[in-house]
Each structure stands twice: as C-alpha cells, then as structure tokens.
Design a protein that fits this description.
The chain has 4 helices and 5 strands, in the order H-E-E-H-E-H-E-E-H. The chain is α+β, with helices and mostly antiparallel strands and 134 residues long. The protein has one domain: Cytidine Deaminase, domain 2. A 5-stranded mixed sheet has the order 2-1-3-4-5. The structure holds tetrahydrodeoxyuridine.
Length: 134
C-alpha cells in the first residue's frame, strides 16, 4: 500500500501510543494493523506493576483485530521514540506470524514518519506457523 495508507496508519498508531500505560519503562509504543477488511486496528503497550505481566502495543492491536473479526494482517506499523528503530520484539514477531505471510510489510516509524519497511520473513526467518502443524 502507498504513502496515504502508511500516513493514516502512522496517525492511528501515534494516537494509540498516547494512550500507552508505561509508567515503569516510560517507553510508549503504538501499533497499527490493517486487516483484510481494510479496517485499521490499533494498540498500545500496557505495563504492569508485576513487570513480566505487561504486554506490547502489537499484541494489543492483534487482539483488537481478532475481536473485530479480521484474521489476516495486511500491513503493520509500529511507532516509538528511540535512537534505534523500534522493531517488534521476538514474541510479537511470532504473534504477527499467526495472521501474516512472509511478505507482509512491517513499517518501523517515529512520530515524524516511517524510518524503514521490512517484511515479516526478514524479522522472523524460517518461522514456525499454522502450516507447520499437521
Ligand atoms: N514494546 C512494545 O510495545 N513494542 C515493541 O515493539 C517493543 C517494546 C514495549 C514493551 C514495554 O512496555 C516497553 O516497550 C519497553 O520494552
């Protein structure tokens, strides 16, 4: 998809990022996912006083997508503010894998714009997915 779509996803992800509950790390992240219906689903990270119980922005966005009835991820955008690009963590790469293909674009962004776009297979090569199960 083109710049108009990524701009829309960036705007949505930034709005989600503003809602992040990140009092411990102070590291707010927003995610936007475009599902097969064309709708955009968003999520933020939600941390917890019991630190390991928190979860990522991508996980929240996937939950919103599934709840709304979409099961295919067409495109993902993650936004954060960091000297290094905010790429999805290992666990989220696998969660995205469940609903995406090797070629699904993952846009890594700052609030100013998309910094780089990679495919899921670049982030998670030789992945295990639903097709691996008998
Ligand atoms: N985090 C995300 O929400 N997504 C990412 O892609 C990277 C990390 C969150 C988890 C935690 O709340 C905070 O950022 C610091 O790791």
């Amino acid at each position: 998809m083109g710049k108009v779509m990524t701009d829309k996803m960036l705007q949505a992800a930034c709005a989600a990022r503003d809602k992040a509950h990140a009092p411990y790390s102070k590291f707010k992240v927003g995610a936007a996912i475009r599902g097969e219906s064309g709708r955009i689903f968003t999520g933020c990270n939600v941390e917890n006083a019991a630190y390991p119980e928190g979860w990522c922005a991508e996980t929240s966005a996937i939950a919103a997508m599934v709840l709304a009835g979409d099961t295919n991820i067409m495109e993902v955008l993650v936004v954060g503010v960091s000297p290094e690009p905010v790429t999805p963590c290992g666990g989220c790469r696998q969660r995205i894998r469940e609903f995406a293909t090797a070629f699904t674009p993952i846009h890594i962004a700052s609030p100013e714009g998309v910094q780089q776009t990679v495919t899921l297979s670049e982030l998670l090569p030789h992945s295990f997915g639903p097709d691996n199960l008998p």
